[in-house]
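quick one
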Amino acid sequence: MRDDVTLSAPGGALRARGAVLLISTYELGRQPLSLASPLALLERAGFSPAAIDLAVQRLDPEAVGRARLVAISVPMHTALRLGAKAVERIGSINPACRICLYGLYATLNAEELLRRGADFIIGGEQEEPLLRLAEDLDRGGTGRAVDGVGASAPAAPSLRKVVFAVPRRAALPPLEAYARLEHAGVTRLAGQTEASRGCLHFCRHCPIPPVYAGRFFVVPRDVVLADVRQQAAAGATHITFGDPDFLNGPGHSLAIVRAMHAEFPSLTFDFTAKIEHILKRRELLPDLARLGCLFIVSAVESIDDRVLAILDKGHTRGDVEAVIDLTRRAGITLRPSLVPFTPWTSLGGYRDLLEFVERRGLIDHLDPVQLVIRLLLPPGSLLLRRPEMREHLGPFDPARFTYAWRHPDARMDRLQQDLSALVGKAAHEGEDPRLTFDRIAARAGASRLQAPIHRRIVHDKGRPPRLTEPWFC
Ligand code: SF4
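structure w/ iron/sulfur cluster:
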């Protein structure tokens, strides 16, 4: 955080073209909605913001030099780490501009980010606090008294419903620059939108509950559909619904995909939903498939019931088995996300997971990175207070924005490091994920996996649908 006197903007200065600069560092390989949404509100209020997506563009020093307020979106951990680096670079290029970080991981790491040179932090429903901040600075204010904006100290996340505007995508790189859908041997342009934000649930490892505290907000149907429409016009033939859980409001979500299908019958889509919701709404699956749903991402995390109970996931291994069967019957691919390395997962448990993946025919449903994810403990994590965590927990590591923890069996920490290196190299070399799976199994000593590689190699056409960006965190 820096001195107010040197940083206050003269009245009216922020409405100049490019005086507000929005930056995204990473949004899962998608065209960043976290820029498109505030861009719309700022433009509607008479600002002329610029935008840079560092995932596909370079940090233009001229654009940074013109900016009076730079707002960096950090919706996930990878984005946070890149965003913290961007703060340093922006500060050295233009020491006079004010820097705001916004998004889920900005709230969780507010203290550390303020210490590292951020002037403002915004979390939760972020667009309106960001707009009010720009307006306050534009009037010559300091931004310190703006509701929902943390300055000298972190502020509570804003949980007031935003008056949504249709996201502005014109200033962003085209969809061609982003991850695509791979399906039936064909690669297609993909877009993303969201029908809701926040979540009703309290899974203990998830970064959403510490910010949203069980609240969720729907995005108006006409706004969602207008966003789909503009992406279809830009060439998208598949839409990802990036909601934390698309089935938190099933009536709202279903109405949207019905309307979408009526207008664009060949448009396909995917969404994320928890196992518990898929089970509870099983009767919707055939309808969702008919409307164009190709796959559902679900945070399975583990198939060990003890681990699932500690994480308070609301499902069991048996439930996962049932959802695999239900989605298969409906013709929808289930793409599980996993957290296979936790303090409570034994080597035997890890091998069991690999065997489960093979036995249930899920090798092609997983990007190999899912098999090396290690539990992340950001500030505010609900797990920090759990008695099961206490004996494993280390200090906060500000360089990595996470609390350290150690596995009681040192072999597991070594295995995770080795497998991360193995998966990183394989992804870099474009290795067949099945081959990577076999390497993982061999390193983990999962000797009951015997299927030879050649029997599992199939033509790309036979692979389940996926997006070409394998990372997710
Ligand atoms: S893991 Fe999914 S269901 Fe659980 S709190 Fe997070 S978003 Fe909600």
